[in-house]
Amino acid sequence: MRKPSANKGSRPISYPSLTKNFAERVVFTCIANQFEVSAPELISYTGMPGSTIAGILSRLVGRGLVAPNGTEIRQRGRPSIRYRVRIPRPICACALEATQVSVAVFDCDLALCALEEHTFETLNSLPDGIEAVAMAVSHLKKSLAAPAGLPPEIALEVNAVRLDRDRLVSSVLPWAEASLEKKLADKLGMKVKIVPPVAPLIAEKQKLRVRNPKSVIRFQVGDGISAHGAFGGENYQGHSALAGQLGHVIVDPTGPLCGCGRRGCLEAYCGGPALHKHLLEEIRSGVATSIDYKKLVKGSPRASIAALWEAWKLGDSYARDFMRPVFERLAWSLGIVMDLIDPELVLACGYVLAERAEWIEEIRQRAQQWTLYSPSRPIPLALGRASLEDELRVTGTLYFYRLDR
Length: 405
Prior knowledge:
This protein has 13 helices and 15 strands. It has helices at residues 22-34, 39-46, 50-62, 126-143, 180-188, 199-206, 266-270, 272-284, 293-297, 301-313, 317-341, 357-367, 388-398, and strands at 36-38, 66-72, 80-85, 91-96, 100-106, 112-119, 153-158, 161-164, 167-169, 191-194, 215-221, 225-231, 234-236, 345-349, 381-383. Helix 1 (22-34) packs across helix 3 and helix 8 packs across helix 10.
């Protein structure tokens, strides 16, 4: 059995298959889901004795499946070594959404080598999506050091759900289909594998350094709206992998058409593309606002939300009026989540809410009226912390290991 090179990360290594030993698999999966973890944390998470954890770590490190990655400095005592899962070879990780394509390369130690992100108003068809990914990959290749080059494999996360081998379904990418894998592989001359769309949730859990909450919800408002959750440390996807589709709770059956084919879904009112479209229509009609229409019409939903945020912060009365019903609807949906699931923690994510603490607080306060026993039950809504790099790192890891259970 070949062991890793002493020059960590200098070249890919051949990995043996994971052992069938149950305890080792538990520890390995725990490390992969936490990204970096210390031996004391593994003892706490698994309930295994320290001597057992030490032996398992020694064996996993010896087989090159896990590597020590620096230390966590403590106020007293010796530093605690942290362990990180390694992958068999460098990987290219890509996330395909309705308004953005992101692609990155990670080495065997899951260290970032290069990252590209390209934003669009929308991707309207399968050829559009394939061309967008190809463009991002081409730019990424130019930014990589020549000796390293571009890995021949892509882990692809699509804003879609695979119902079975032959069907992908998505409200934000209604053109998504299972042939995307093969057609993209033919276009790029690379092996492409669609991985489960759980990287954003896992990345957020990895940022929870203090402890693992018994239940955590990732409340995302971006191209789509969702409330994906993890319970008892395990990601819950539901019987048909459609759990957490909060954006398809119907607000008004006669409302605007949603990408899912129905009318009046929450997503059709409060998703980023819907807000972008509504904003353009109203400003074109001549409302008084400091928002520059010429900049919006040439931009993407992400740019429109950024402009709306800046105007809102400056007290623009139109921006304040525009966001009020958005806050109300999102608060109502959050109240549904609270009453159905009663989560220990809710993380606000997605480009509509990311790094916008004031908007998150507006939603949290309004949601209290929709939450049972709200006076004595504060809504545990906090800002998500995972970055795009964090999410793509998990996407790359999912190419090799199952973390979605």
